[in-house]
Amino acid sequence: MIRTVFNQGRRLIDFPLVKKHAVGASFLLVVVVLIGSLLYSTVSWMWDDQRLPLSKLVLQGDLEYVTALDVQRAFSKLDHVGTFMSQDVDVLQDSIESLPWVANASIRKQWPDTVKVFLTEHHAEAIWNGNALLNDAGKVFDGDIGKLHGERVKLYGPEGTSADVLATWHKLSQQFAPLDLTITSLVLNDRRAWQIILDNGIRLELGKESLDERIDRFISLYQNLGSDALRVSYIDLRYDTGAAVGWFPEQELEQESTDD
Questions:
Q1: In terms of C-beta density within 10 A (0-12 exposed, 13-18 middle, 19 or more buried), how is residue 150 classed?
Q2: Which CATH superfamily is domain 56-121 in?
């Protein structure tokens, strides 16, 4: 009898505990469902194209050739510009770095509707093959030559030689500076022969070999020419020693003096 009474008492005590746990679990489930619904609604609202559109642009950087309008036009070519939450920054960066004058772009979003763009432009060192530009690292880019501020040297060379031609121009420019001469055009042709046009109109034919020695030979010759340098049309240095000098006709020189 005692055992039976004990079991009955235990059953009487267990029923309220079960009921209490069931109520607690139900309450927890309701709370989880409410929180989940709230999160879903919030995320859906934030990712809705009608909410938080990226509508403001802040452009930063020391810029000379790229404008805010250029950046806006780049963005307009995208199939879709999303919201603050949905838009991939890498997509925006790729679109801006496709602009001809842009060397590097850094983009970040600012809550709730702003895109901040920091740009670095290419520094145009030279005009390349007549229709492109070279930056200071020898990289070819398709900037608008008509927008250039100031004169640039004209460099020419086969594909893949831009960095070498630029480096050679830098080196030769330093050698010609003491003579008060400036290179206006430097050509590396398909046979890998060099040609130089100077700002005084003299054309130098240097060939493929012994470039340094031939430049030294020209410097020595030019220093000895004195005022006769004004009569020189070209100097051909493609010899083991010496050089061939081409002279302007006297009549042509007189006409040039008259025109001045």
A1: exposed
A2: membrane protein fhac (3.10.20.310)
